[in-house]
Design goal:
Layout lengths: L1 H22 L1 H5 L18 E5 L4 E4 L2 H10 L5 E7 L6 E8 L1 E7 L2
Antiparallel strand pairs: 1-2, 1-3, 3-4, 4-5
């Protein structure tokens, strides 16, 4: 039992380190919101990043600006949506879409 606990903790650490290192890349690539111009680093806890199936991506400061983008691009299908965590300010994938909304798999 103790070995399983240690193994689970080690796996969690191995998974979280790349996520933390990758988390700030979207802020460097997209420093401000496309729609309102808000500083995404200052408001890292509410930032969002959507990647569409055509390869394009949009970074916003909040769920409100993301909703604006999704409404304007209703013909595009989101491949992944990432959000900033309030406590750690690290982005995590909310869900990955494969094909249609009926085939949604929930992530972290």
């Amino acid at each position: 039992m103790r070995k399983m606990s240690i193994l689970a903790i080690a796996m969690l650490i191995c998974i979280s380190i790349p996520a933390i290192l990758f988390a700030q890349e979207d802020i460097k690539k997209y420093p401000s919101c496309k729609y309102c111009g808000m500083n995404r680093e200052q408001f890292a806890h509410s930032r969002m990043l959507v990647e569409y199936d055509d390869g394009s991506s949009v970074a916003t400061c909040s769920i409100h600006c993301l909703a604006v983008d999704l409404a304007l691009n209703i013909d595009k299908t989101p491949k992944s949506i990432q959000v900033g965590d309030y406590g750690t300010k690290v982005s995590s994938m909310v869900r990955r879409l494969s094909g249609s909304l009926a085939a949604t798999r929930w992530g972290l």
